[in-house]
Amino acid sequence: MLVSESVGQLFLQHEGGRDRIEYTEHGSGDRWVVLVHGLLMPRRMHLPLARALASAGLHVVTVDLLGHGASDKPADPRVYSMTAFGEQVVALLDHLGAEQAVIGGTSLGANVALEVAVTAPQRVRGLLIEMPVLDNAVEAGIVAFVPIMFLARFVPISVTALRWLTKPVPRRLMPFWIGIVLDTLDQHPGPVAAVLHGVIFGRIAPSSAQRKKITAPTLIVGHSIDPVHPFVDSEMLSSELPHATIQAASSILEWRMRPERLTKAAVDFAVSVWNDPGTSRRIAT
Questions:
Q1: Does this model's pTM top 0.85?
Q2: What are its GO cellular component terms (predicted)?
């Protein structure tokens, strides 16, 4: 089933001026789904899932948060935090005129979805969470991302050199996920350092007490053999949320290389959430 796709933009006003956020709409209607990318990754990573969801009759929006993809990338760490990212998603819903949406995300995007569910629960029809980064991921996250932050800040040529190498490679000639990796490596050092500083030194996710108050139906996808996104975090989140179910992926590669099973689960979940007239009443209470 072919669905329409269009690119839009949203401007966030602030004391210093305004920042531009870019997004893509897939499909139409008032059954909204918003998909949020992983850390430093572009919104295009969710293109296959967005098309599958839109083909099922949902109105899907993929967004580049500030500092990512085609959106503006200020080199100021003060503008980056999970809370700020959550506010950007709510601003996007306001801009689109979407009263509610299923909010989905991967890694960073998963935590941003949780932020939206805590700060604006009335806007969340459901949650589609892949690879949440919670209490058991702190040490591995520090090991993985603090060195990148230091290199971007103090050895910027390391990031710039990767950009010089990756930018000329034609994405259309590459397999989809190799293209996503190339896009992720195509960065400027200042914004990379700022994004990582803001994320690492801010709160990573809502507290357990806050998470336990989330009443939206939730599908959680967790991966084994992934220290930055340990499966125990997905299990913990599943036990905290009263209306959560969990799917175990064989690895971080399953949804990338063999997506049929998990994509079907995600589509079935999002459609069922919108088809259930009792969901809004449960969220309101």
A1: yes
A2: membrane
